[in-house]
Design goal:
By secondary structure, the chain is α/β, with parallel strands linked by helices. It is 34% helix and 15% strand. The strands form three sheets. The chain has an eight-stranded mixed beta barrel with strand order 1-6-5-4-3-2-12-9. A two-stranded antiparallel ribbon has the order 7-8. Strands 10-11 form a two-stranded antiparallel sheet. α5 packs across α6. The longest helix has 23 residues. It is globular.
């Protein structure tokens, strides 16, 4: 049972709570699946090849953990919406209006509008750090960055938010009180009897949707009804250490496959029937340099060579690498010149 609880937590590892400082959030039309593009590895394909892969998968929303210049340039004019990250180490600097404005002018503004940056996440799971200095810097940093966006005229394009682990919930079931059921069918979106919230009488057939509604209930209990919740990371590892019994390709395939079906159906949670669940799957690739247990580096849908880790019914294409030797380049040059002469002869003959 302890291992099942551990894997249940892995299944929905963090939520992205969107705290908008503008009058209304930017509306995203035609929600599809988003993907986390982590890069803690030394064997990943180039960003330009990744752009082809995501296009072949019809994925148009990507979450980065930084503002990687090479990635943002590679996705120029691709119509992919990006969430970019500012790590915890940046929060103190971002409370300074001048530093916040400079960062936006250097790392965000040059990419707009050709690369569609729609959101900036401030910090990552700050409240799991127990660093009270980080806690006190988070909101001022978010406000300062938002004000800088306003000054630069970018606030209609780019929003500001923060990502938090589900650890911020002291209670997550029933959602209206906002203990998990521990059976794996409930976690993996498999057919099950579900469970009924005794306060709202709403029925839940999976843990993830119950957790989302628990967050909404917690927000409402604090007097807020206009904060949007997005799931910035949810996934399942295909491999783990000996004590991570649930980390298997079979479970990962079930979780992500069933999750994608629900996303395609534009499902909503019981408490928010008119709000489709907005999800970013964790993650695109296995990452061979991630610290921690073996599961941490094995959440990917794909190996770095573009081979699927398991079958969930989607096919993508990662272009191969092209190598040219000096002799090949000379041969190509000769062929190009011959073709040019032939074309010129045909035109002027």
């Amino acid at each position: 049972m302890e291992k099942q609880i551990k894997m249940s937590y892995m299944a929905a590892s963090s939520l992205l709570l969107l705290l908008f400082f503008s009058g209304s959030p930017i509306q995203i039309l035609g929600l599809g699946v988003g993907i986390n593009y982590g890069q803690i590895a030394n064997n990943l394909p180039s960003p330009s090849r990744v752009a082809y892969l995501l296009k072949s998968l019809n994925i148009s929303r990507v979450k980065l953990y930084d503002a990687d210049l090479n990635v943002l340039l590679a996705f120029s004019h691709t119509n992919v919406d990006f969430i970019i990250g500012l790590g915890n180490e940046y929060l103190l600097n971002m409370t300074d209006p001048i530093k916040a404005r400079n960062w936006l002018q250097q790392r965000v503004q040059p990419h707009l509008p050709q690369t569609r940056i729609t959101c900036i996440t401030m910090g990552n799971e700050v409240f799991k750090t127990y660093d009270h200095q980080l806690w006190s810097n988070l909101l001022p940093a978010m406000q300062t960055v938002y004000n800088a966006l306003v000054d630069l005229g970018l606030d209609k394009q780019v929003t500001v938010t923060s990502a938090h682990s589900l650890d911020i919930l002291s209670i997550s079931f029933p959602p209206s009180a906002g203990s998990f059921r521990q059976d794996l069918d409930y976690v993996l979106f498999q057919s099950n009897q579900g469970t009924v919230d005794p306060i709202t009488n709403l029925k839940y057939d999976n843990m993830l949707y119950a957790q989302v509604d628990a967050v909404y209930s917690a927000i409402k209990a604090m007097g807020h009804t206009d904060i949007e919740v997005r799931i910035s990371e949810t996934g399942w590892p295909s491999r783990g250490d000996d004590d991570e019994a649930g980390a298997t390709p079979e479970n990962a395939g079930l979780y992500n496959g069933n999750l994608l079906k629900r996303i395609e159906e534009k499902q909503s949670t019981p408490a928010k029937p008119n709000v489709p669940v907005d999800i970013y799957v964790f993650a695109l690739f296995n990452e061979n340099l991630k610290p921690g247990p073996a599961s941490e580096g094995n959440y990917g849908l794909y190996y770095p060579n573009g081979t699927p880790v398991y079958n969930i019914g989607v096919q993508g294409y990662l272009p191969g690498m092209v190598y040219t030797s000096p002799s090949t380049k000379i041969a190509l040059s000769v062929v190009s010149n011959v073709l040019f002469l032939v074309i010129a002869y045909l035109i002027f003959a």
